Amino acid sequence: MAQVFQEFCDENMHRNFPLTDDASVTDTTGALTIPTNLMVDMYLCIPNTAGVDLSRFYVSNITVRQFFVDITLGHADLGAVIGTFRNITVGATLHTSYDFIPAEVEISGDLNPIYYATGQVTIGSAESMAQHPGSWSFVFAETPVSVTRVSEGLMNVQHIQADDRLFTGLVTLKEGNNVTLSVETTGTAPDADTTITMAASLTGDVGALDLQSDNDVLTALISRYGPPVQTINGIRPNSSMDFLIQGADCTKVQAVDNGLTFSNPCARPCGEESAEMSRALEDVGNLDLRYASLREFIEGVATELNANIQRMISLGAAEQ
After folding, report:
1. What value does the mean pLDDT of the chain take?
2. Fewer CB atoms < 10 Å away: N or C end of the chain?
3. Residues 85-92: what's their mean pLDDT?
4. CA-based angle 166:167:172, to the nearest 5?
C-alpha cells in the first residue's frame, strides 16, 4: 500500500533561493517577510573586475505599487544601489522573467564595472506582495543573493550607453541628417569583431567633408556661405550676439515686424494738424483785413494831405 508523505509538498516553503538559505528576508522594520514564491530564480553577470566580492550582492529595496513591484539590488561594499528589476506585473503569468536595469547614476571608483551588470529575475507570483503597498528597505545580512547566482564575464552587446545613461533591450541606431553609419566585420562567429563607424558630412557643391572638430565645421560653413559678420564698425556684439540700437535726443527707435522704425517726435506739430492749419488760415485772413483797413486809412490821409497842400498853394497865390 502506497504511503503519502505530506511534508514533501511543503519542502519548497522553507527555501529562500535565489537568496541564501540562512537569510531572514525581513525588512528593516520587521513588518514584511519576502514571500518564497516571489522570486524563484535570478542571475547577475558583471564584468571581470578585481576586488569585487560576488557574495556581497543583496536585495536592498522592494517597492510595491497597485499593479507593479520593483526589486532593487545593492552591493554591501558599495553603499549604493546598482540597479532594479522594474515594473514586475502583480498579475503576471507564472514564471515570468524581467531584465535587470542598471542604476541611472553611474557608479564611481574601483567598483565602477558593477554599473555595467546584466541580469534577470524569474517571478513565481507577485500577487501576495500587492497586500503590502509601500517601499520596504533591507540590509545585506537579511537578503544576500546566493553567490551561485552571480558570475563574472559579459558576452556580446549588453548595453548601449549615451552620456551617463544605459539602454538595454531592443535599441535601434538610426542615421540622421548628414550622418552615415558603416559596419565592418572581421573574423567569423563566435570570434567576429564588428565595428560601427558614425561619420558626419556636408554634401552638395562643396563635396563630402570630414567634420572632426568645431574648426572643421566653421571652415565648412565659411567655404559655403562666406565669413560671418563679426563686428560692425569695429564694435562686437554682446554675449547674446546682439547689437543694441538706441535713439538719441528726440530720435525714437521702435521694433516692427522684421525691421525697425526711426522717428523724431519733437518735429511733430503740437495738437491736431487740421486744427493748427485752420487757426493759421484764420490768422492770415485777419492780417488781410487789417492790411486792407490800414491801406484805406493811409490812402485817406494821403488824399486829405493833398487837399491841404492845394489850399495852401491857392492862398499863397491870392496874397500876391
Report:
1. 82
2. N
3. 92
4. 140
User: For the chain, what are the domain ranges?
Assistant: 14-166
Residue 194 amino acid letter:
T
Judge contact between 25 and 38, C-beta under 8 A: no
Instruction: Tell me the torsion sign for CA atoms 158, 163, 165, 170.
Output: negative
Residue 155 pLDDT exceeds 60:
no
Q: Span 186-215, mean pLDDT?
A: 70
Q: Which residues fall within 8 angstroms of residue 35, CB to CB, at 6 or more apart?
A: 125, 128, 129
Q: How confident is the model over 269-294, as pLDDT tens digits?
A: 655 556 777 788 888 888 888 888 88
Cβ pair 117, 99 in contact under 8 A: no
Q: Please answer whether residues 181 and 197 qualify as being in contact, where contact means their C-beta atoms are separated by less than 8 angstroms.
A: yes
Residue 45 β-bridge partners: 118, 151
Burial class (CB in 10 A: 0-12, 13-18, 19+), 89: middle
Render pLDDT for 219-229 as a digit per residue (tens, 0 to 9): 888 888 888 88
Task: Quickly tell me which residue has 491801406 as its cell.
Answer: 295
Taking the C-alpha atoms of residue 286 and residue 277, their distance in angstroms, rounded to an integer, is 14
Residue from 178, 114, 106, 137 nearest 28 by CA? 137
Q: How far apart are CA 178 and CA 203, in angstroms?
A: 8
How far apart (Å, rounded) are the C-alpha atoms in residues 308 and 312?
A: 6
